[in-house]
Amino acid sequence: MKKHTVSIILIIVVLLCNFLSAEEGMYPLSEIHKLDLQAKGLEIELSELYNPDGISLIDGICNVSGCSGSFVSEKGLILTNHHCVYRAIKNASTVENDFLENGFFAQNLSEEFPAKGYTVRITESYRDVSDEVLNVINKNMTLAERTKAIEKKIKEIITQVEAENPGKRASVSEMFIGKTYVLFIYNYLKDVRLVYAPPRSIGNFGGETDNWMWPRHTGDFSIMRAYVAPDSSPAGFSPENIPYTPKKVIKVAPEGVNEEDFVFILGYPGRTYRHRTSHFLDYEYNVRMQFVAELYEWQINAMEEISAENRDIELKHLSKIKGRSNTMKNYRGKLLGIRRMNLIDNKIEEEIKLQEFINSDTKREKEYGTVLDELNDIYKETKENSERSLILGYLRRSSNLLSYAYTLYEGAIELQKDDVERESAYMNRNIDMTKKRLSLTAKDFYAESDKILFKNMLERSANLPLHQRISVIDELLYGNDVSHSKLITNNSPHDPTDISPQGETKRGEYIEQIDAFIENAYSKSQLAGEEYLLELFGKTPDEIRAIDDPFIQFAIELYPLYQEQKEIGKTRKGALDQLYSKLIDVKKEFMGSEFVPDANGTLRLTYGNIRGYSPRDAVYSYPITTLDGVVEKTTSEFPFDSPERLLKLHKHKKFGRFGHPKLGSVPVGILYNMDTTGGNSGSAVLNAKGELVGINFDRAYEATINDFAWSEDYSRSIAVDIRYVLWVLDIYSDADYLLEEMGVN
Ligand code: ASP
């Protein structure tokens, strides 16, 4: 073959690969101009997508309390996911007015209800502040001091920026660990209301069985509206407020997309950990995720059992159950993915190659020679006492009463400090939100389940191996009881590994002590009362100490332990910062290329194509599902119980203009190879012209692994097709005015 023929073939292959395959990447705004998106399929100018000096698509994209969303009308209408709005719908639901079950549709502005605790952020600008942040550290600092100095500097920057920009929200995000920091300024809206939510049997069709799965048939969308004060400034809820006018409205494209079409997402992916080492992954795989998945499974079962027969009680537990179920299944997917992809071994191999590269140059070896070993030592140490620290961490999260008590005591101490020295939750800028959280969770408090979950954590603590005992818990449970001394073995109440009859007896007595402690604590504590709780928030440490409440006294006992844990965390972070900062440098040298930072809740772009995949041998999944599939999956049983009206409309082929000409039905779900993670929920999926064709809400089971690694074979994300959204609004719900408002006439 002639030389130039070979080159032409090579060029075609490269171009084709470029054209056909998406790449790993959640690109920060600063990196977008480096991508040749037009070559991949984008049909608009890059400046229409992102323009720091003018209006562009990013002005129509928002963060909705940790999820993503997009503005689709001049009057602040936001499209996001049903599961993102779930908490708000649930909080407004009662047995009589069960919006969660039946859906909600405000016929006009006055019927919309406040989504309490929800906020909306829109990225306004960003600036690299790495030098400013890193300037505050010096060589004489201990590792913990280093971390604290950086944290304090970040708080100072935020406080100053917010003072200079009233109504805005600032945040400094660590991009590359210990290396780069970017200040983001957000427009910050605090009056957000619910406009439309489909019934549960559409919005959460398939429930947990279908969660993290493809093919998917869930209408996971809802509509909110953002409001501002009459003078257009951001403000908390008030009946006088007016709808917010976004700088940019994202155009909705009722024609949708087809297989292989170019698509992109602008959204707020939460966290990925792709630049971490094999030992981090080993800890996640062998310890943390297994622990959490097992604990959550236990807690979910307990809460489901308690709430099975009573909707009122069930409503109090649904958010917790949904959140934990989502995490549990996600972790199980990741555990499977790590195994299947041999991720730990692959990482180890990469690290061996990197180490060889480091050692191949004396100067490099001197600078980076021990980085990997040192990093791995930190994770090894984390693993050593992991059971104890995991139990301590989840102890507080498992009981509302303990968590309230701890917040009150910690808050009392923190509020004595200067604003920038405080833990973030108690800074002046966050106090309202912290109180709001207390009051919202107090509404869901249910003593029976709180007791059961708390007791289980104490029992788990009682079963810790001797060298990991939580002495405060042991001592507290026994107090001055004479049986205490009787039970002490090697400075511990009992030896859980002692299977002798004496050992069993000791264990039995210990459990009795736990029961007694719990009965007393729950009958005495007043912390479940919302008003009382808020009254105590802001009291001085002495005032809190003087309160005769068993949970407060327990929290006071635990406080030094949690402080010790926090200090250990800061020391570790100090060490990791220095080491990862070096690792990134040498990795760049090794790979001879730049790479993008892990996701960290800041605005990112990812792009790709509507594309199927092969999850298992001999199985191929097509990337578009339809209403036919909803009907096919429908049984009369939860969670596959479609509404009668939907079935009837389908039967009579009432597809309106939303039917797919070739598929002969309304498209419901779309699948694509874009790089997403949690937080991307609610993100607008945009076509080549930058118009909205879907709302991202999930990933395929195999793609839960995205948080650790990306794979063109497995990494597939899922959106609800805009045609289904519009069909549900228009044909199913007769919500014409919403379509009109979105410009879909
Ligand atoms: N459904 C997911 C979540 O809310 C979205 C994702 O992680 O891809 O966590």
Please, could you describe this protein's structure?
- Helix 10 packs parallel to helix 14 and helix 15 packs antiparallel against helix 18.
- The chain has 28 helices and 19 strands.
- With 745 residues, it is an alpha+beta fold.
- It is 48% helix and 13% strand.
- It has three domains: 338 residues, Beta Barrel (Thrombin, subunit H), CATH 2.40.10; 109 residues, no CATH class; 211 residues, no CATH class.
- The strands form two sheets. Strands 2, 3, 4, 5, 6, 7, 8, 9, 10, 11 and 12 form an eleven-stranded antiparallel β-sheet that branches. It has an eight-stranded antiparallel β-sheet with strand order 1-14-13-17-18-19-16-15.
- The N terminus is likely disordered.
- A hairpin with a 2-residue loop joins strand 2 and strand 3.
- Bound molecules: aspartic acid (ASP).
- The site of aspartic acid (ASP) has 9 residues, from strand 18.
- Could you tell me the strand content as a percent range? 5-15%
Write down the Rg. Answer: 27 Å
- Principal-axis shape: globular
CATH architecture annotation name of the largest domain: Beta Barrel
Poorly predicted regions: 1-22, 482-492
Oligomer: single chain
Mean pLDDT: 93
What is CATH's topology name of the largest domain? Thrombin, subunit H
Proportion of helical residues: 40-55%
Features:
Thrombin, subunit H, disordered N terminus, 745 residues, 28 helices, 8-stranded antiparallel β-sheet, binds aspartic acid, 48% helix, 11-stranded antiparallel β-sheet, 13% strand, alpha+beta
